[in-house]
Amino acid sequence: MYWCFGDVINDLGEYVDTQRQVKVRLGMENTSSDDVNVSTASPSRIRLIIAGDDVARRWAPRAGTLSAGDRPVPVVIEGQHLWAVPPNVNYDERGVASVGMYTGFSSKWDQPDVLTPGATIGGGTEIGDGGSTYNGPDAAADLVFQVPVDSYEAPVHILGVAVFNIPADATGSHDWSLLAVCQFNNWGSQLASVYF
C-alpha cells in the first residue's frame, strides 16, 4: 500500500553508505482455496526480491535481525537470478540520542502466520496523498528490508515483495515455490516515511 526508502545510521550516529532500507506497508488477500503461510519467522515467507552482486555477504542489518538466523537467499524467478531478502525483525532499530535520530525504520508486523482463503491482513488506515502528517495508530503491517547498495544508491533493481511456500523439509531456496509477487512497478508512488 505504501513504501519508501530510508537511511541506515550506526550506533555513533553516522550514516552507513553501504546499506539502505526499504519500508513497505503491506495489504494482502488470499484469493486461493488453500491456507497460505505468511509468517515472517525464520525462514520468512515474505521477502523483498532484488538484483545485486554478493547480496548475502554484503547484507548487514542490526544484531537482532542477524541473530534471528534468516539470511538473503538466491532465487530464480522467470529465469532471472535474484535475491530474496528477509524482513528485519520487529523493533530492531534504536534511538541514537547524540544525534536525535533512529538507526533506521522498524518493522512492525503483528499479523497471523496463516492467511485463510478469502482473508485479508494488513493495510492499516488509508493515508491519502501525504498532504498532512498522519497521526493514527502505529501500523501492524509494516515490514522493513535492509539491502546492500553501492555508492549510496537504491538497489540496482527491486523486483517486488514476494510470498513463498517453504516446505518443512526444504534444504534450500531451490525447494521453495513462489506463490505471489507484487512487482515494484505496481507499488504506486513513494510516500514519505513520516506518513506511515
Outline the fold blueprint.
Blueprint: E1 2-6, E2 19-25, E3 27-29, E4 36-37, E5 46-51, H1 55-58, H2 63-67, E6 73-77, E7 80-85, E8 95-96, E9 101-102, E10 108-109, E11 114-115, E12 120-122, E13 141-148, E14 157-165, E15 177-183
Antiparallel strand pairs: 1-2, 2-13, 3-12, 4-11, 5-7, 5-14, 6-7, 8-9, 10-13, 14-15
Would you summarize the structure shown here?
By secondary structure, the chain is mainly β. It is 5% helix and 35% strand.
Verbal overview:
There is one protein chain. By secondary structure, the chain is mostly beta strands. It is 5% helix and 35% strand. The strands form five sheets. It has a five-stranded antiparallel sheet, with no helix packed on it. Strands 1-2-13-10 form a four-stranded antiparallel sheet, with no helix packed on it. A two-stranded antiparallel ribbon has the order 3-12. β6 and β7 (80-85) form a beta hairpin. The termini are close together. The model has no long low-confidence stretch (mean pLDDT 88).
- Biggest beta-sheet profile: 5 strands, antiparallel
Could you state the order of secondary-structure elements as H and E? Answer: EEEEEHHEEEEEEEEEE
Strands in their spatial order, largest beta sheet: 6-7-5-14-15
**Whole-angstrom Rg:** 16 Å
Please provide the count of β strands: 15
Task: Indicate the mean pLDDT.
Answer: 88
Q: How would you describe the shape?
A: globular
**How much strand?**
35-45%
Distance N terminus to C terminus?
A: 10 Å
Q: Helix amount, in percent?
A: under 10%
Count of helix runs: 2
Unreliable segments of 5+ consecutive residues: none
Structural class: mainly beta
